[in-house]
Fold:
Amino acid sequence: MYVVVIGGGKVGYYLTKALLEERHEVLLVERDFKRARRIAEDFGQGVVLRGDGAETATLDRAGVGRADVICAVTGEDEDNLIVCQVAKRHFNVTRTIARINNPRNEEIFIRLGIDVTVSATQFIISLIEQEIPTTPFVNLLTLRSIGMEIVDLYMSDDCPWVGKRIGDLALPTDTVLSLHIRNGIRAFPSTMTLLMRGDRLIGLTSLDSEHALHEMLQPQ
Amino acid sequence: MRVVILGCGRVGARLAKMLDESGHQVSMIDENLEAFERLPEAFGGQVVLGNGIDFDILSQAGIERADALCALSNFDNTNIMASQIAREVFHVPRVITRIYDPVRQDTFRELGLETVCPTRVGVAQIEALIDIG
Structure:
């Protein structure tokens, strides 16, 4: 695969390194002279292009037109967005991946045509939420291409589901509760499964139903 | 009219002054506190300190009720992103984007942004002057 990486900071550097080790063809675009030179010393001249990745001319020189993927991983959300948009619009790159710092930018990036967004901030937030057992609703994974997500639901003391059977819950559409965990023991729940305080459920829900599901778990 | 201006530089501050004087409601956004010193003492509008691509900052500047956004920061990409947020998320009826890079102007004009490119305007003016001389 030919991968063009924009931004030679720490993320770009180690991403390039990992991709080279996987024997992909990689070109890293870095604006700063000194940094570009240092990367060239480590990975070889052919791996680095010094220039502004948001400039069409730079992307042209980078041969973005034949790239399989472009990864914009600079520290600035706006630069990553515009690089990916230009790559898509001008060079018809099919797969664009953008790094995001402000998790709230994810939605607008997707709406503006970026294929994949990666947010370290959001990732760390979910990891923290997963570590806190009493968080009632945690998004474990979003399967954006099919509009679904895998969620982890925790029955807190004041959760309205406690004392109810799964069959009696008026779940939102496209929502399935697939796994029931009590005291670390897992089971596949049935409509008869009675929910108790401290139980956890792993479920699938659509992105459209996420909000409704989240609301259902709120104490009345 | 309610106008949000991103970037209190020479152009932003001057535009803000003119709009304010003609009775419009102006909100200025800039990341640098000193930038607001460019505004006249009598400026009656609002100033918001912060990043113009941050939803909360745009909200503070009243983007939901704005009739227009002028993205005039020194960074093309910031202007382009702020403009796209204003259009797509907040449905601001009129969005004007300053883009210095002519190539990028073409790209985002094709995508429907209303753009102004000072580089093109400047070059055209200077060229005209040389022709006369």
Remarks:
- Chain B touches chain A at residues 53-55, 75-78, 80-82, 84-85, 88-89, 101, 103-104, 107-108, 110-111 (CB under 8 Å).
- The longest strand of chain B covers residues 25-30.
